[in-house]
Every structure is written in structure tokens, then in C-alpha cells.
Amino acid sequence: MPIHIRRERPGDEKAIFDVNFLAFGQDAEPKVVDRLRGNCPEGVSLVAEDEGLLVGHILFTPAWIESGRTTVRGMGLAPLAVVPKRQRQGIGTALTGTGLSELDAAGVPYVVVIGHPGYYPRFGFEKASQYGFRCEYDEVPDEAFMMIVFQPRAIRGIRGTVKIRPEFAAAMQPAGRVGGG
Ligand SMILES: CC(C)(COP(=O)(O)OP(=O)(O)OC[C@H]1O[C@@H](n2cnc3c(N)ncnc32)[C@H](O)[C@@H]1OP(=O)(O)O)[C@@H](O)C(=O)NCCC(=O)NCCS
């Protein structure tokens, strides 16, 4: 049976915790996921299911840019996790691609990620600094803060700092990586 990507549903919570714990080898990321589930109903949480087992998870939560009196809302991708035994089989790609398509179709103008510059450009992410945006965390390297823009008109003339949910501060790592990628 092929991998099935679907929305998180009630009862998935423990399996999602376990997927993130196994992928990251620590509980910082799964705890952030749990906090955001409670705090952030606008989040989009997708799972990859294989014969009833959850093997991957991705979460998108609100991001925003305050520029003068304007706030431009988008989404942030984090975390993305695939259990170690099932990595490099296209599951992360399927979760990311499905999530981005859903957000694009829903009219979300942009998505940001703090992640691996070797991974996310394949989906269309580019350095956010190319668009004139920076990350609120100074320790994040320029090339690790990326953005995919679905609606260029929404950010035309807008510059500044992109904010992400404060819950992610707990999962920031010394190298400036959030459990996103
Ligand atoms: C990163 C991650 C989500 C990718 O999921 P995946 O299902 O293994 O990825 P896919 O099979 O869709 O894509 C595989 C490609 O991703 C790239 N890739 C995988 N892990 C990577 C990493 N840590 N850094 C950079 N590129 C990576 C490789 O180029 C690989 O291609 P290859 O097999 O030709 O070498 C998964 O490895 C993971 O959960 N890692 C641990 C948790 C983590 O660090 N998450 C943050 C992402 S870096």
C-alpha cells in the first residue's frame, strides 16, 4: 500500500510525538508540536501513514511580517520529521509537496522555513533575504532562512522581519536551526 498523506486527526497525538522524537532524537521538537496543537488552531498538521503506522509528520503554523501599519500573514514550516528507518524514501518530499500545494490553494501568500539550504530549494524555497526579509533570530544563518512566495503581489513593497510563533524559541538550536529542516 502506498504512503498516504492526510491531515492529523484526534488520536494521532502520541504517534506524532513519537515520529518527531525518533527523527530529532530529543523531545524539544515534539514538545513544541504539542504546545502548538493547543495554542494554534490555524496550524496545518499532516501525517504520512503507511499501513496504519505514522512514519512522517509536517506542521505549518502562522508567520507574519509587520511593515509599518501593514501585517502580511503567511505560514512557517516546522517541524518536518520522518522516522529514521523510512528516511530517503521520498516521504519528506511528499509531506512538503502536499502541504505547500494545500497552502497555495488556500491563498496563503508565502511560506518560510528555517532549515537546511540543501533540502528546501527543491520545492522552490529561496533565501528570504533575496526578497528583503530577515529572520527574528540573529543566530540563523542567512542561507538557512528561506521563503517560497505564492503571491508576489502580497509582499510587493514590504520589507522587514518575519515573525514565527514564539513556541519555536524553545526548539532553537545553537546553529540556528529550528526543528524544521
Ligand atoms: C530531513 C528529512 C525530513 C527528509 O525526509 P526524507 O523522507 O528522508 O527525505 P526525502 O526522501 O523526501 O528526500 C531525500 C533527499 O533529501 C535530502 N536530505 C535528506 N536529509 C537531509 C538533511 N538532513 N540535510 C540535507 N538534505 C537532506 C537528500 O538530498 C536526499 O536525497 P538523496 O536520497 O538523493 O541523497 C528527514 O531526513 C528527517 O526527518 N530528518 C531528521 C529530522 C530533521 O533533521 N528534520 C529537519 C530536516 S533537515
Q: Overview of this structure, please?
A:
Strand 2 (44-50) and strand 3 form a beta hairpin. The chain has one domain: Gcn5-related N-acetyltransferase (GNAT) (Aminopeptidase), CATH 3.40.630. The chain is built from four helices and nine strands; from the N terminus they run E-H-H-E-E-E-H-E-E-E-E-H-E. Helix content is 24%, strand content 33%. The chain is α+β, with helices and mostly antiparallel strands. The radius of gyration is 15 Å and the shape is globular. Strands 1, 2, 3, 4, 5, 6, 7, 8 and 9 form a nine-stranded mixed sheet that branches. The longest helix is centred in the middle third of the chain and has 15 residues, at 91-105. Residues 23-24, 80-82, 87-93, 115-116, 118-119, 180-181 line the site of coenzyme A (COA).
Question: What keywords describe this structure?
Answer:
181 residues; alpha+beta; nine-stranded mixed beta sheet; 9 strands; 24% helix; 33% strand; globular
* Amino-to-carboxy terminus distance: 27 Å
One letter per element, helices H and strands E, the order comes to: EHHEEEHEEEEHE
The number of E-state strands comes to 9
The helix-and-strand class reads alpha+beta
Q: In the CATH classification, which architecture applies?
A: 3-Layer(aba) Sandwich
The domain tally reads 1
The whole-number mean of residue pLDDT values reads 94
Summarize the biggest pleated sheet.
9 strands, mixed
Q: How many whole angstroms does the radius of gyration measure?
A: 15 Å
Bound molecules: coenzyme A
Shape: globular
- Corresponding CATH superfamily: Gcn5-related N-acetyltransferase (GNAT)
Broad CATH class: Alpha Beta
Residue share in helix: 10-25%
What is the count of helical runs?
4
Uncertain stretches of 5 or more adjacent residues: none
> Strand content of the residues, in percent?
25-35%
Q: What name is given to the CATH topology? A: Aminopeptidase
